[in-house]
């Protein structure tokens, strides 16, 4: 018979600490009991439920403490914890992290260089990442910011077959940037 106060469970991406009371920690008068195979055994006193769990050489675990009456299940607690950890690990594997890749341009970029940058951005988008296209201004280039915005607009237009503009062009200090995401 196992005794544990806390079980760390990760649901929907956030770490939630759920207190799973087992065996003698359950202090309720009556509980709804679920058998080891999932069958409903009905509402009974905790002593009777504990007796059923001991006879099966398993643990009595309170799985739904907020229900009226609380729901307890007759299971092997160690195996239950292992299954929860395994499910959490599987869910974590299936999550995909979306990265923000950056492509840097300058106001006087040549067309071949721009095409190379577009190809790089296309590869990033095909892998499922977002792309931040940054147009950096140095020195006297700051005087012609308004006339350089078309470079970002042209970049977005050239990528519109696989990308959608998530954030429009915005000036941040000495650079103007736009964020492109995969088209849905």
Automatic annotation (TrEMBL):
UniProt keyword terms in alphabetical order: Cytoplasm, Initiation factor, Protein biosynthesis
Localization of this protein: Cytoplasm
InterPro entries named among the record's database cross-references: T_IF-3_C_sf, T_IF-3_N_sf, Translation_initiation_fac3_CS, Translation_initiation_fac_3, Translation_initiation_fac_3_C, Translation_initiation_fac_3_N
Gene Ontology molecular function: any one: ribosome binding
SUPFAM superfamilies linked to this entry: Translation initiation factor IF3, C-terminal domain (SSF55200), Translation initiation factor IF3, N-terminal domain (SSF54364)
Limits of the Translation initiation factor 3 N-terminal domain: 22-91
Pfam families tied to this protein: IF3_C, IF3_N
Every Translation initiation factor 3 C-terminal domain range: 98-182
One GO-annotated biological process of the protein: ribosome disassembly
Entry keyword Disulfide bond: no
GO CC annotation: cytosol; membrane
Family assignment from sequence similarity: Belongs to the IF-3 family.
Subunit structure as annotated in this protein's UniProt entry: Monomer.
Function description: IF-3 binds to the 30S ribosomal subunit and shifts the equilibrium between 70S ribosomes and their 50S and 30S subunits in favor of the free subunits, thus enhancing the availability of 30S subunits on which protein synthesis initiation begins.
Protein name: Translation initiation factor IF-3
């Amino acid at each position: 018979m196992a005794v544990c106060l806390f079980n760390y469970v990760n649901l929907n991406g956030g770490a939630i600490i759920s207190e799973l009371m087992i065996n003698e920690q359950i202090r309720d008068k009556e509980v709804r009991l679920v058998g080891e195979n999932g069958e409903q055994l009905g509402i009974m006193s905790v002593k009777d439920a504990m007796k059923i769990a001991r006879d099966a050489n398993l643990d009595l675990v309170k799985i739904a403490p907020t229900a009226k009456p609380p729901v307890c299940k007759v299971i092997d607690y160690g195996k239950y914890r292992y299954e929860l950890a395994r499910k959490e690990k599987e869910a974590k594997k299936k999550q995909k992290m979306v990265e923000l890749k950056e492509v840097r341009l300058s106001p006087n970029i040549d067309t071949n260089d721009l095409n190379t940058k577009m190809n790089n951005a296309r590869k990033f988008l095909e892998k499922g990442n977002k792309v931040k296209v940054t147009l950096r201004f140095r020195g006297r280039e700051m005087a012609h910011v308004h006339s350089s915005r078309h470079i970002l607009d042209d970049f977005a237009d050239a990528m519109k077959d696989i990308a959608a503009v998530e954030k429009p062009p915005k000036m941040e200090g000495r650079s103007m940037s736009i964020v492109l995401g995969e088209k849905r």
